[in-house]
Design goal:
This protein is α+β, with helices and mostly antiparallel strands. The chain folds into 2 domains: 2-77, Glutaredoxin (3-Layer(aba) Sandwich); 84-219, Glutathione S-transferase Yfyf (Class Pi), Chain A, domain 2. Helix content is 59%, strand content 6%. It is built from 9 helices and 4 strands. It has helices spanning 11-23, 39-42, 63-73, 84-105, 109-113, 120-140, 154-174, 185-192, 196-219, and strands at 2-5, 27-30, 52-54, 59-61. Helix 1 packs antiparallel against helix 7, helix 1 runs antiparallel to helix 9 (196-219) and helix 4 (84-105) runs parallel beside helix 7 (154-174).
Amino acid sequence: MITICGFPISNYYNKVRLAAAEMGIEYKDDAAVMPSQDAALLARSPMGKIPFLETEQGLICESQVICEYLAERFPEKSLYPADAFARAKVRELIQVLELHIELVSRRLLGAALFGGSASDETKAEVKRDLDKGLRAFAHLAKFGPYLAGSEFTLADCCAAVHFPLISMVTKIIYGQDLLASLPQVEDYMKRLGERPAVQKIWAERDATFQAIMAARKKQS
């Protein structure tokens, strides 16, 4: 039995959990692991990040590596197409979404949600880079009805956990949801929200986030 370790407000932890759930893989869930530079965590996750995976053979870190491992370990349940080119196109979507959109928006996460600040210069830089990333993503995504075409893939697991965060951050910082520049996103997210595994991940994420915000408010 594998164990997925992390915390429910982490979209990368939720990405792995969603992929496992959509693949129908049985797993244990250690949902109380926070990122840390403590020696105990570094022994399990060398960068002190979440998620990481406990297997019978040892530990694996980095969400995309974990998902690739699951696809290879359970090929009959893989969320990748059988065709090599089609698989590459799914990976391409994931790379652009995570590297050029999610990671870029993450620069504003502290300012948007946790009481931090961002300079006007930083906001302008992030907006410029997000516009570029969204333009590239719009060129690649098919929304047919899923990102890579007619079948649900790992790219959709990524979008299910990353899109809500990107929308929230850009609404707070810029007063508009930059994802709305992709006109298909609204219907696409409604379609994702009909999937039981997505509903479960979203509900657990929201409940955990609300509990954290309530605790912070009580302390202040």
